[in-house]
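Below is how a single chain appears once it has passed through the pipeline. First comes the sequence as given, then the structure the pipeline wrote out for it. We keep one example in the README because the format questions we get most often are answered faster by looking than by reading.
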Amino acid sequence: MMQQYSNKLEWAQRWPAPAKLNLMLRIVGQRHDGYHLLQTVFQFIDLCDWITFHPVIDGRVSLQQTIPGVAEADDLTVRAAQLLKAVTGCQLGVCIEVEKNLPMGGGLGGGSSDAATTLVVLNKLWDLQLSVEKLMELGLSLGADVPVFVFGYSAWAEGVGEKLEKIYPAEQWVVVIKPDCHVNTKEIFSAKNLTRDSKSIKIADFIAGQHKNDCVEVVCQSYPIVKEALVDLSVFSEARLTGTGACVFAQFDSELEALNAFKSLSSKWQVYLSKGINQSPLISKLNG
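Resulting structure:
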């Protein structure tokens, strides 16, 4: 018997896929399969892609509009939807409409967040009733950052980024610069001079101010424009790299301070003004 769609009104909604920042990133080892063992802190910011899911009657998964340079079958939202169908045997289809606001290749997790929103929302719309833990497991097969977006809360992360524990860093104003380059994450993690033996720290050490990102030196050597962005941003507050970049960010205690930095930097850089949030807007909307 053909599966039926749930309430059509739910399908008409736009769902957020927020950006994340890595507030610190330590590489504490490497597995035999080449994956790096990390300690990092994820926090969301209120800058989002928006995704709308449209029901289709023929069971196919498609994009309303493809991203230039990315084949439809390779798009993480399509792969996430197809994975759900494969795991559950669901025969329903969907046309996915993505309003893309997050820069690609910036270290803000845009593609991973889009995939996570697809997993979480289609689990609801298709009434698949998979647990959050199962969705996180599926997400990890799509990318190391996907589980935290499914998890939906700021997190202390270990392993390859999949072992998550809730953490509550201050929800500060944030200025993000996106340099005009695309950092190749694989290239950075393959670099011979990348630190791979940082000492593990505790959450208390991070709270006390240990914000190091082990990728900074290698990224700045390979991408001088990222180093330039860090220098320019550091005039206003402590400037940090998120993930392997290319985006750099700084936190501010007040909106006014952040706005002043944003205005000063806007003439030279692609800049975003945002705010740190410890609960993903996707979770807020689901629970609302």
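The CA atoms of residues 140 and 235 lie 37 Å apart.

See the next section for the split statistics.
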